[in-house]
Every structure is written in C-alpha cells, then in structure tokens.
C-alpha cells in the first residue's frame, strides 16, 4: 500500500516522533511505500482563508467553501494545498500521528484538514459517508495522551476515548468515505518508565503489522437511516456513540 503519515508534533525526540519513526520503519519493512507529511518541519500554514486560492472568485464576500469549490474546478487552489491533496490522492491508507491537545488534534493538524479537505476535493453534494470521496481508502489515528487509560474508560473522568475521537473518526474520516481502524492510543507516555514506553511502542509495532487483519470500526450504513437521516425504528444503535432514543 501507499501509506501517508500526517505527523503533528513540534519535537523530533518526542514520543510521537518515536511512534512516527517506528511506523516508517515497520511499514517499509513490510513492503509498503511510506510518505510522511511532517507538518511542523514543513512550516504548514494552518489558517484557512482567502490565501487558499490563487484567484478570488467573489471579491465582495468571502465564502471558504465556495472559493474552494471554484478553485478545485479551475485548478487554482494554493500550491501547498494541491501538493498535500496529491499525496492524499495517492495514498491507500492515512495514519494521523498526534498528541491529544485539549481533547482534540493540535491546531496545525486541524488546519491541515481544514485546508486540504477542501470542498470539491474531499466532499461535495451527495457524496458523504458510504458514498464519500475517499471510499476505498483506510485511515487510523495514532495518538498519545497526558493521562491514563482509566481516565479515558467509558466511566472515566475524561470520558470514553472513542467518544473523544468520534468527531475525527466519524465527522472527518467516515464522512469522507474512509474505512477506519481502531485508534492506537499510547496513554501518558511521559509518566511511564522506560519499560512501559517500550511496551507501548511494541504494541504499536504489532498493530502496524496487523493492519490488514484488524477489524474496522463499525459505522451504520446508509440503509440503516430513514429519510430524516436518523436511524430507522428498530435499528439498534451500534456505533457506540449514537444511541436509540
Ligand atoms: P513526550 O513528552 O515527548 O515523551 C514522553 C517520554 O517519552 C519522554 O520522556 C521522551 O523522552 C520519551 N521517549 C521519546 N522517544 C522515546 C523512545 N523511542 N523510546 C522510549 N521513550 C521515548 N493530555 C490529555 O490527555 N488530554 C488533553 O486534552 C491534553 N491537552 C493538552 C494540551 C496541550 C496544549 C498540551 C501541550 C498537552 C496536552 N495534553 C493533554 C498532554 C499531551 O497529550 C501529552 O503531553 C502528550 O500526548 C505526550 O506525548 P509526547 O509525544 O508529547 O510525549
């Protein structure tokens, strides 16, 4: 597979850096072709706005979605965005490597998504979820936290890790058509000892080696929803984050 790792950590010797390096090494050894988008090293501009297109379609009123759509049609999307879209288009699988910051992705990674997942490229009318633009591609989050697995248990103080990551898993990845592997989460590596961190890296290596046999996260398919896009009566909510009311 062509695998793109989108890596968002400012420090190369961080645990996230170690996970990224391990992924490159392990996946390459398995015969995959691996590319890294190292957002801090690239100096990625994370702020979506008027400079995202070479030509402004509507000079009177700025609409990001409209400008993106026209720029994608006319080939005038900014060069840095086009380069990332090319990498994404070529990828069969994308791994997002990041630390949890404020219960979400670091801003530089969110900004990569805001700009690269442009309207007309990553989504367009009638193309979402089962029919999403990236149907056939696979994605996985590889992340780290500052607190323990217990705090991210379903009854933990921080809440279920899958609930925390649902906006990314469903709102970003599944929405645009990806199949999604369960996340690999290294909990509080900074508070583990060397042996504990080595175990976390070993667990990640094993996950990387079993990508093709690991069951995907469950998402309801289109036929489970009625015309109002709510689960049809009698369909048991199984995604883990949705519930029957
Ligand atoms: P590092 O601190 O870089 O590394 C941890 C340890 O691993 C270090 O001792 C390092 O030397 C060591 N290490 C590096 N490479 C290796 C290797 N190859 N082998 C063995 N050891 C190695 N946490 C939450 O849980 N929820 C939040 O909402 C949250 N919000 C945050 C917001 C901000 C702005 C910040 C700065 C932090 C936040 N945190 C939060 C904490 C954050 O998630 C953790 O600090 C981060 O995930 C730890 O990962 P790291 O890569 O930065 O670890």
From TrEMBL:
Which superkingdom, per the lineage? Bacteria
Would you tell me the protein name for this molecule? Flavodoxin family protein
Q: Which Pfam families match?
A: Flavodoxin_2
**Record's keyword annotation contains Oxidoreductase:** yes
**Would you tell me the Gene Ontology cellular component terms?**
cytosol
Source lineage = Bacteria, Pseudomonadati, Pseudomonadota, Alphaproteobacteria, Rhodobacterales
Annotated coiled-coil segments of the chain: none
Q: Which GO terms describe its molecular function?
A: NAD(P)H dehydrogenase (quinone) activity
Keywords from the UniProt entry:
Oxidoreductase
Q: Which InterPro entries does the UniProt entry name for this protein?
A: Flavodoxin_fold (IPR003680), Flavoprotein-like_sf (IPR029039), NAD(P)H_dehydrogenase_qn (IPR051545)
In the record, the note on similarity to other proteins reads: Belongs to the NAD(P)H dehydrogenase (quinone) family.
Domain (Flavodoxin-like fold): give its ranges. 1-208
């Amino acid at each position: 597979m062509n695998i793109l790792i989108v890596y968002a950590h400012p420090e190369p010797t961080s645990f996230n850096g170690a996970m990224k390096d391990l992924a490159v090494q392990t996946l390459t050894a398995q015969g995959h072709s691996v590319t890294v988008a190292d957002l801090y090293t690239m100096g990625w501009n994370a702020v979506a706005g008027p400079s995202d297109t070479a030509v402004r379609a509507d000079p009177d009123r700025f609409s990001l979605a409209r400008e993106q759509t026209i720029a994608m049609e006319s080939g005038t999307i900014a060069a840095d965005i086009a380069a990332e879209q090319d990498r994404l288009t070529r990828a069969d699988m994308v791994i997002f490597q990041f630390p949890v910051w404020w219960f979400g992705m670091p801003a530089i990674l969110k900004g990569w998504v805001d700009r690269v997942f442009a309207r007309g490229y990553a989504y367009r009318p009638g193309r979402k979820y089962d029919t999403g633009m990236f149907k056939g591609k696979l994605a996985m989050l590889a992340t780290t936290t500052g607190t323990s697995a217990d705090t991210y248990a379903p009854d933990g103080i921080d809440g279920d890790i899958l609930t925390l990551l649902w906006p990314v898993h469903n709102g970003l990845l599944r929405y645009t058509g990806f199949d999604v592997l369960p996340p690999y989460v290294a909990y509080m590596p900074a508070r583990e000892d060397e042996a504990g961190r080595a175990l976390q890296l070993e667990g990640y290596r094993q996950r990387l080696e079993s990508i093709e046999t690991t069951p995907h996260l469950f998402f309801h398919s289109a036929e489970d929803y009625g015309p109002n896009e709510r689960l049809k009566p009698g369909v048991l909510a199984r995604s883990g984050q949705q519930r029957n009311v």
